[in-house]
Structure formats: C-alpha cells, structure tokens
Design brief:
The chain is 50% helix and 13% strand. α1 runs parallel beside α6. The chain is globular.
Length: 307
C-alpha cells in the first residue's frame, strides 16, 4: 500500500489536467472531481484515478485537496460550499489552492478552514500548460512554514522553482505581481513591434535586436513566437482570466496605497480584449495593434517553443 498522502484535485482545465497526470505518474493515490470536466476526469480514471461526483466525496478520500479553479467563488464553493470538501476532510488535512485569486479571499477561506482544523496554503502557479505537463512550473506559496515543508514533495511534482514567500495570502500577492508585470511587458512588446512595422522595419528584425538589447524579455523570446508569430491564440492563458487577475491586482494596490498607473491602463486594455476574444490567449491583444497599423505582426518567428 502507498505511504504517500491521498490527494484530491478539483479543477481539470488547461493547468489542472496535466498536473493531475503528473501526480498519477509520481504514484500518488489520486481522486478527481468531475467539476464540469467529465471527459478529463474519465480519462484520468482510466489511468488509475478515482472519479467522484462532488467535492464532499473527494474530501472523504483525501488527505490533501488541491484546487485549480478560475476564481475565489469557485474555491469557496469547492471547499466550504454546501457540498464542499471541508465537510468530510479530517482535522490535520491540508487544502492547497493553486488558483489565482484575491489575497483577501484567500485569507478569509484559510480562516474558515482553520476553524475546522484544516490547514490551507495559497500556491498559485506560473508557466502555462506545457510547463504544467513537464513539471517546470514556478510556484509561490503563502502559509505556515511547517505545512509548506510537509507538502514540499507534492509541490516538487509540479514545479522547478518553489518559493515560500510568506504567510497566508502572500502567494497570491506575488502571483498578482507577476501578472501585473506580464501585462505591462506584453503591451510594451506589442507597441515596440507595431512601431517598427509601421515604419518599415520587419517585426522579426525589431525582435532580434531587442533580444540582444536592454529590451529583452521572456515574453518576447519564448511566448510571442508561438502566438503572435503564428497567429494561433487557441492555447495559453485566456484574456478573461488575465482581466480578472488585473482587477484583483489593482484593487490590492489601491488598498495598500500603491500607485499602479501602467497597471490600471493594462487592466482596461484586457477588459477591452475580454470583450473581443475572452477565451483566446491574452497575447491576442496584439491584433488590436495590428488593426491600428493595418499590418500584421506575425512575421515574428522562432525555433523556440512555448514554455
């Protein structure tokens, strides 16, 4: 019999499904909840996972529950709702929320779980589906240090860079910092490429020069070649999710008295993009700039793959 903790995972979307696959490959006893993803749950069940119809059933079979869902209401419903996992989890169990939600909501949920003697870690992730599948995610964790160490072998299944950043909610704060930064950097990339193209310089030329100069950045090197470069925005991080995260980031900044001038503009730009194409990768905002200059930026090409 396995001595590894029993894990329940709720949320089998673009990130959750490959993460569940990695848990199975690592030998963890895994239970998955259908949660709008029956096909994905059935595929995992064929590989050895237990499939249940509700978070309550999942909690009864788990020592650790992981949530990878869109936002705070879904986390709260999965854990504390009428059919939530907390109703059947035993004292001493752990809930790990790997979604990106408001740090205020995280702390509220953590306090409610603590009243049931259930620990909670907020451990949002960065890296996209391909790095979820390869186990190379960046994971930023908020919560009690002893609980983090207890769960570190689980995090090691998913991540290449695992950082305990502080108490409850701190993981979410750092993830919002990341998403605030990538939104501003993405806009800077689009505007630089559009400026070059509109003035007769091929986008690939602009990109190659910037990659060897002080304007170099991860998105320009690794991500844009597979989205803007190909015109394929069907995979990746949906614009509606980035818009949600930017709203949380700017609200958190206001509460702390932090000026986020570029961030506020980015938030409005992705509200615009959410209306244009909510489910496409957030870098589809590049088409706004293409429409403005009347020319494509798709000449960006690279041998690099999305990471």
């Amino acid at each position: 019999m396995s001595t590894l903790p029993r894990i329940g995972l709720i949320g089998l979307g673009a990130m959750g499904a490959p993460m569940a696959q990695r848990l199975l490959e690592a030998g963890y006893p895994l239970t998955v909840n259908v949660y709008q993803r029956r096909t994905a749950a059935e595929a995992l069940a064929r590989q050895g996972a237990q499939m249940v119809e509700s978070p309550r059933e999942l909690g009864a079979r788990s020592d650790v529950v992981i949530t990878v869902v869109p936002d705070a209401p879904q986390v709260e419903e999965a854990l504390l709702g009428a059919d939530g996992a907390a109703h059947t989890l035993q004292p001493g169990s752990v809930c790990i929320d790997m979604s990106t939600i408001s740090p205020v909501a995280t702390r509220t949920i953590a306090a409610a779980l603590q009243a049931r003697q259930i620990a909670m870690l907020d451990a949002p992730i960065s890296g996209g589906p391909s790095r979820a599948a390869s186990g190379e995610l960046a994971i930023m964790i908020g919560g009690d240090a002893a609980v983090v160490e207890r769960c570190r072998p689980i995090f090691a299944v998913f991540g290449a860079k695992i950082t305990h950043v502080g108490p409850s909610g701190a993981g979410e704060v750092v993830k919002l910092c990341n998403n605030l930064a990538i939104s501003i950097i993405a806009m800077a990339n689009f505007e630089a490429l559009a400026l070059g193209v509109a003035n007769g310089v091929p986008a690939e030329t602009v990109r190659e020069v910037l990659l060897g100069a002080t304007g170099a950045n991860y998105l320009l090197e690794r991500w844009l070649p597979t989205t803007v470069g190909t015109g394929d925005y069907s995979q990746g991080f949906a614009a509606e999710l980035l818009a949600k995260d930017l709203a949380a980031a700017t609200a958190t900044a206001r509460a702390a008295g932090v000026p986020v001038l570029a961030g506020a503009l980015a938030e409005q730009m992705w509200v615009l993009q959410k209306g244009r194409a909510p489910r496409l990768d957030y870098t589809a905002l590049a088409t706004f700039y293409e429409d403005a200059i009347g020319a494509p930026l798709r000449t960006v090409t690279s041998e690099h793959t999305q990471e």
